[in-house]
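Record 1 of the preview.
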Amino acid sequence: MQDGGLVVIAFAATTNKLIVESANDSEDPSDDEVPKKLTLQEAYGKLCTEFIKSEKTSYLCRKELKKADLLVKLDETTRLVEMFVVENTLLEEKVKNLEVELSQARTQIKRMSSAKLESLVLRRMA
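->
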């Protein structure tokens, strides 16, 4: 049965057979190993405990990988936003320059129109 990412295991042993396990607290293989006797149920209980620890570690690793993936996506998105900000600034500057050119063109058109109108009026009056 799986509940919230953890696996729940149930077991009952009705035997008293002994299992010999190598009991070695240190991870140095050169130490003398002292055999420890366990019943089948004790061995299974220890196995379940180790399995649960392994599942918790696996869950935390997956969570860290997800976090790392999200951080990479955040970094990529941040760079993309910065690129758009730069591009937007350049486009705003271009729009301002075009507005200045448009204003100058309108002023020239008004001057030319006024001059032509004045020229026509003077020709008709003459």
